[in-house]
Structures are given as structure tokens and as C-alpha cells.
Amino acid sequence: MADLKLPYAEDDGEDTLPPSHTPPKKRLSANIPALVGFLALAVIVIWGLSHLATLSRPWFVSLLYPKRDTTHRATSTLSRPSLGTPVVTQNLQKKKPSAPVRSASAPDLTVFILAIGVIDPMTGVFVNRPPSSPADIVAAQFDIVNRGGSSTGAWYFSALLPTVYGGYPYLSPVQEPLGPGDHVVNTLRFSPIISGGGVFSVVVDSEGMVRESNETNNTVAEFIPMMMY
Hints:
Layout: H1 32-64, E1 87-93, E2 109-119, E3 126-127, E4 137-146, E5 157-161, E6 168-171, E7 183-190, E8 198-204, E9 219-224
Antiparallel strand pairs: 1-7, 2-3, 2-4, 4-7, 5-6, 5-8, 8-9
């Protein structure tokens, strides 16, 4: 009788199942071009964003912090409630003043107030009239003379301006030396003037840099009238 193979016959040691399908592994060298391209693209994108941020930064700064006009124009009314920065214009005149020059060897600085007025907002011209509005730019013209017999050397002058918030103490930049008989005409502009008016005063050689023959003529003052507002 022939031997029958039963379905549950023992395994004869041979694997009858099909071998599993394993995909071939990709080599790392095949991914290098793609990786380099990705890194290059990332660098370009980051550089572009950084460059765009740099270009747009001034726009954002100007949007958040608008640039203020720091120039002083004679046509500006300085009508805002905050204090306007004083402006000084000078006219150095190398000629003899009306007051006689003393024969003393030491210098002698003297100050005179010439006029108190306002600056016309349209023309920028000095107008000899009292201020009538807090929007007026007040202008004080004064003359500083060396009545002594020698040069002054470097010097300063200071002024007290009757502005709002208790007045404004002004200190000039360093002034050029004045020879015997020389004088300099100054126009000091400021705004807004205090309600009801106030005293405008000037002190020459306020820092005590000049050894003068007479120190009693270094200060001058004048009341500037103004209505209450």
C-alpha cells in the first residue's frame, strides 16, 4: 500500500513559505544632493527674511516713533503747550558803540536791551510790539559791548526767559572774544510767554571767565507785558 501524506505531516526541514520581500536600502550618498539643496533653500529664505526686516525697520520705527522736526524756523508759531526751545541769532559788529570806550586796560562787558517784540510768523521779521497771544514768538534784542581797553577772551551770557512752567534759564554757547569797542547784537526768541507777562533778564559773563574793570553793568532786565490767558 502506498504511503499517504497526511496534511499534518511533520516538516521535513525545508521552508515551504515564500521568502519575505525586503526593499533594498538606499545609500546615504544618494540623499546628499537633496539635503544640500534643502539647506541652500533654507539659507536663502532666512537671508531674505533678515534683509526684508532690515529694510522695513526704518518704516516701523518711523511709524511707532515719528521723527520730530528739530529745526527752528522763524515762521513757526510754537503754539503747542510744551515749551519751545529758545533760538539766538547774533550780528557781530566790529565798530565803536555809542558808549565811549574806557582807557582801562581790562575789558568791560556791558549789556543793553534794544527792543522787545515778536517775530512775524509769515515773514520772520522782527516786529516791535508786545506779545498779544501765547502763540506769539517773543523776541528780545540786546546789545553786548566791550567798553574796556583789551580783548575779553572767551565768555558766555545767560538769560532768564518768562515762559510757562516757572521760566526758562538759558545759557549761551561759548562766545567769540570782543576787542575794545566791539559789540554783538543778539536776538533771543522764545515761546510761549507766561500768562500775565514776566521779566526778561540777561547776564553777561555769567560764568565769571572775564576779569573786568567793572562788574556792576553785567545785568539788565525788562518786564514784558502780556494779557492773562
